[in-house]
Amino acid sequence: MSDSQPSGAPGPVVLEVWCELQCPDCRTALDDVRALRARYGDRMDIRLRHFPLEKHKHAFAAAQAVEEAVEQGQGWPYAEAVLARTEELERRGEAFLVQTAKELGLDAEEFDTALIDGRHILIVDADQAEGKAIGVTGTPTYVIDGERLDGGKSQEGLRERIEEIADRLLAG
Predict the structure, then answer these.
(1) Cα 159 to Cα 13, 50, 51, 106, distances in angstroms
(2) Helices 59-71 and 108-117, axial angle in degrees (round to 10)
(3) pLDDT single digits (tens) 81-122
(4) Residues with Cβ < 8 Å from 101, sequence gap 6 or more?
(5) CA distances in angstroms from 115 to 47, 53, 61, listed in the order given
(6) Tell me: the pLDDT tens digits for 122-172?
(7) In Å, what is the CA distance from 141 to each residue of 101, 133, 159?
(8) Which of 90, 36, 100 is nearest to 65 (CA)?
(9) At residue 3, what are phi and psi to the nearest 5 degrees?
(10) Sheet holding 147-150, edge to edge
(11) Is residue 15 within 8 Å of residue 162, measured between CB atoms?
């Protein structure tokens, strides 16, 4: 096993954010994600994980679109742009996903093709299966140091809890 960290120096803390891009609670959670990013910078690796819910008909396509954005180097900016307009995603579906890519200067044609050919479906399916396996039932759900924090019911105190765990890990 190779370790790229110098001996004794803690690596970045990994925070997984199980998210769904048609979820209003995930949009609210963006404020916490931004605050964590500002506080920890590259000491925290914030990973977007997909957990599209069946009740939102465009969530699965949106998850695939984010993976295309990741491939084009704009995963988080794209996810944030879509989350900022969940109502428009609800109304316009895939046309909105492609338009958002264009607005961010991404290759919108490639987004359209990716949504048609389903090249990112396996990534989304794998995330969803892993989420179910570890007990994710709704979004947003955070996982840090093996601890699952469910933000679907309430996000009250979650950022503080994440910071406590991250500070402990980074001090470790």
Answers:
(1) 14, 20, 20, 31
(2) 130
(3) 999 999 999 999 999 999 999 999 999 999 999 999 999 999
(4) 65, 68, 69, 72, 78, 107, 108, 111
(5) 22, 18, 7
(6) 999 999 999 999 999 999 999 999 999 987 677 788 999 999 999 999 998
(7) 26, 13, 12
(8) 100
(9) -125, 115
(10) 44-50, 13-19, 141-144, 147-150
(11) yes
How many CB atoms are located within 10 Å of the residue 153 CB?
9
List the structure tokens of 47. 């990973």
